[in-house]
Amino acid sequence: MTATLALTFDNLGEAAELEMGALPAEAPLGGHRTATEVVPALLERLGEREIAATFFVEGMNAELYPELLREIDARGHEVAYHAWRHEQWDELSAAGQAENLARGVDAFARIGIEIAGLRPPGGRLGPGGVGVLRDAGLSYCSPAGTGPGIEDDVALLPFEWRHLDASCVLPPLAGAREQMTGSPDPVEPATFVASLRAEIDRLAEDGGFLAIVLHPFMLDWLGAENLDALLDSVAAAGGVGVTRCRDVADSVLAQPDRFAGGTVLDATSWA
């Protein structure tokens, strides 16, 4: 595969905090800082560098922040699915996954956005496998793993935990930190960015697929200087195609003989 990079952002608004019990059920909704300040500023940074990204957002955001999602879409980025309220995907039954997907696809359709892909919260597919995605009309999934592939007419565009910002601090992902630095200790933002820039250089030389995973709620942790350095590296990556996940999926699905069975899934989860 020619060198292909997908810059992706997971989570928006209150969804994950509600799911994890970090917000009371009666808390007012619709004014979360990631939606009112962080992502709008991020869109400006991406626009300045002409980078097209993929935003995996929870379905409830179609009701809470429809105008922001329309703006993301209108600027040429992709809006993709990250469960309805950031439910741990592999803990849902196959029927529960199907219901979750149907609710989300319908909510996004009502605001004029067609969903092509899912990144399962927690990184694992669970009981429904790719069948529930195919039946819901999605073309791809981005689970934890390595190597782009195809399964049952669904493209798999995996991410590796060492390419995800939260791996720098979450206790269950000490193994990812050891891959980055050789130590399970927490990783500093500048070290994380340096490791990603090295991965971009490797990608340009060796080819293949790289998904970088950032979270809007962690951009304060990353810092403006580190974010700008990373975005500059993405924008300047010679010989690397930077594109949306749905476009990568279209390319993979157009070459079934090449990509069938090409993904190795990772059973590790952040939870």
The rounded Rg comes to 17 Å
What share of the residues does DSSP label as strand, in percent? Answer: 5-15%
Strand count: 11
The profile of the biggest β sheet is: 5 strands, parallel
- CATH architecture classification: Alpha-Beta Barrel
CATH homologous superfamily (4th level) name: Glycoside hydrolase/deacetylase
Low-confidence stretches: none
Our count of helices gives 12
Mean pLDDT: 97
Helical fraction equals 40-55%
Coarse structural class: alpha/beta
Helices and strands, in N-to-C order? Answer: EHHEHHEHEHEEEEHHEHHEHHE
Principal-axes geometry comes out as globular
Q: How far do the termini sit from each other?
A: 32 Å
| CATH C-level | Alpha Beta
Q: Would you give the CATH topology? A: TIM Barrel
As for the number of domains, it is 1
Could you explain the architecture of this structure?
This protein has a single domain, classed as Glycoside hydrolase/deacetylase (TIM Barrel, Alpha-Beta Barrel), CATH 3.20.20.370. Helix content is 41%, strand content 14%. The chain has helices at 15-19, 33-49, 61-64, 66-74, 94-110, 131-135, 174-181, 189-206, 219-222, 224-235, 245-253, 256-259; strands spanning 4-10, 54-57, 78-81, 117-118, 140-141, 145-146, 149-151, 154-156, 209-214, 241-242, 264-265. The longest helix has 18 residues, at 189-206. The two termini are 32 Å apart. 46% of the residues are buried.
